[in-house]
Design goal:
The protein has about 350 residues and is an alpha+beta fold. The protein has two domains: about 140 residues, no CATH class; about 190 residues, no CATH class. It contains eight helices and eleven strands. A five-stranded antiparallel sheet has the order 1-2-3-6-7. Strands 8-9-10-11 form a four-stranded antiparallel sheet, with helices on both faces. A hairpin with an 8-residue loop joins strand 2 and strand 3. It is rod-shaped. It starts with 14 loop residues before the first helix and ends with a helix.
């Protein structure tokens, strides 16, 4: 059996057929020679001996030639198959190269437009966030509040707490004085637990006293009803004096300001003054607590988180020159609650 060295081409020379033709051909030629010998006792000897001798020799020659043709036929087929495969491969390679070139040519404009398209999408997201902030500051509602909190929680611009790491939390003052009550906002987005969909939850908690008041902003309630319920809960918990200073208007203004700055900082937009990447609390205008510590606009990190966690009040000291002493003490106390909960 003979095989082509070319992968994928296997053509076998049928040696048995070649041998058969050679044997039969040789036999016929030999028979012709015998017939031509008129001296032998042969029925066809005499006048017709030359005729039949020629016939036998021609048949024998044809059979031998057929054997040669069978052998050459396989060689020719192998050559044709090898050449055909080579041509097909060349055509396939050329077609593949042209396809890659065409695909690259079509893809190149899209690649060139990627940065522009991404910038446009980011600009659209930023504009949507500004719209949500404006809507919340102008017309506070459950929907507008949820929208901005959803954005901040989704990009981890505010600390994420809870047993499953889903609840976004931020604290802001609910008044325009330094001793105004502070509200911690806990927002849990919609999630799937055990094949059941849990709806969004928003809880407002007053950060005062040992028995803090809290209310859940239920579906269908407006801001007036929620803050009326929160005020009643404060009175029940013994924080009636703080309830008198509660301002829903100031709360929403501060919440918008804190969330806008937190989102802008997390996305590293131009114009942000915060160094940290997560905003825990708005202490006052231009004073925030972040994962870097207490930060003051125009000053930087005034109380580094490492010192607060390690040394507490002994590491803070007095307010640096140019910073409000009362806000310094307030920020110190609030920061210690964040980074040393048992203080």
């Amino acid at each position: 059996m003979m095989q082509s060295p070319e992968p994928g081409v296997s053509i076998t020379v049928r040696w048995w057929l070649v041998l058969l033709f050679v044997v039969l051909g040789a036999g016929a030629i030999w028979l012709g020679a015998i017939v031509a010998d008129s001296a032998l006792p042969w029925p066809l000897a005499g006048e017709r001996a030359a005729y039949w001798s020629g016939v036998a020799v021609n048949i024998g020659s044809a059979l031998v030639l057929a054997a040669i043709l069978v052998w050459f036929e396989r060689l020719i087929l192998r050559k044709v198959a090898t050449t055909t495969i080579a041509v097909v491969k060349d055509v396939a390679h050329q077609a593949a190269a042209e396809a890659v070139h065409d695909a690259a040519a079509r893809l190149q404009p899209k690649i060139d437009e990627l940065d522009r398209l991404i910038a446009e999408r980011n600009s659209g997201v930023a504009e949507e966030q500004r719209t949500a902030a404006t809507a919340l500051s102008q017309e506070p509602s459950r929907e507008t509040t949820f929208h901005l909190l959803r954005e901040a929680t989704d990009i981890r611009a505010i600390p994420i707490t809870g047993p499953y790491g889903w609840t976004g939390t931020i604290t802001v003052p609910a008044g325009n004085t330094k001793d105004a009550p502070r509200i911690r906002v806990d927002y849990t987005p919609e999630k799937e637990v055990l094949n059941q969909i849990d709806e969004e939850i928003l809880v407002l908690t007053i950060c005062e006293g040992n028995n803090p008041a809290h209310v859940e902003w239920a579906q269908g309630e407006d801001a007036v009803a929620v803050f009326a319920a929160l005020s009643r809960e404060m009175v029940r918990s013994g924080a009636g004096a703080a309830a008198q200073k509660l301002s829903a208007t100031q709360f929403f203004k501060n919440l918008v300001a804190a969330l806008e700055e937190a989102i802008k900082t997390r996305e590293c937009r131009d114009g942000t003054w915060i160094h940290g990447s997560v905003v825990y609390e708005l202490v006052s205008d231009d004073w925030v607590i972040t994962d870097q510590g207490v930060e003051v606009k125009g000053y930087g990190v005034a109380m580094p988180v490492e010192r607060l966690r390690r040394w507490g009040t002994s590491a803070v000291g007095e307010a640096p020159e140019g910073l409000d002493g009362e806000l310094w003490k307030l920020a110190q106390g609030r920061a210690l609650r964040q980074f040393q909960p048992n203080t």
